[in-house]
Structure of SnoaL-like domain-containing protein:
Amino acid sequence: MTLDEWWRAYQLYTDYTELLDTQRLDDWIHLFEDDCLVRVMSAENDKAGLPLALMRCEGVPGLRDRVHAIKEVSVYAPRTMRHVVSGLRLTRQGGDFLATASFVVTQSLEGAQTTVFASGVYRDRLTPAGDRLRFAEKVAVYDGDLVVNSMVYPL
């Protein structure tokens, strides 16, 4: 693996967090392959090999449905989310890359103290798309058994 390949992965994660944190969800979708799989699941289910996920989106159409629900259907208190990602590790698998990174997501509701919403690990598969990388599979495994409140935005 080259420094350039690692840098492209780092840029992908930076774009991912910035687009979620600024709620630019229509742009966020473009970070994914058309046939992607996105899951958010508890560490307990992950360790037990259970497929149950708190959120599961198959392909870009599934991501578009999620974005539509966030913007047009769901009723929730206004909030600011902040994603912090660290410890990015890459290994090559064929033409793709397997990536792991730790994450912490904070949530700030109007009139309330900022809280840690979730922490955990990303286990992703990245695939080349021109001079950039995209997510072919994105799995967020959160540490606790529960998440605070409801999960409006993806981890």
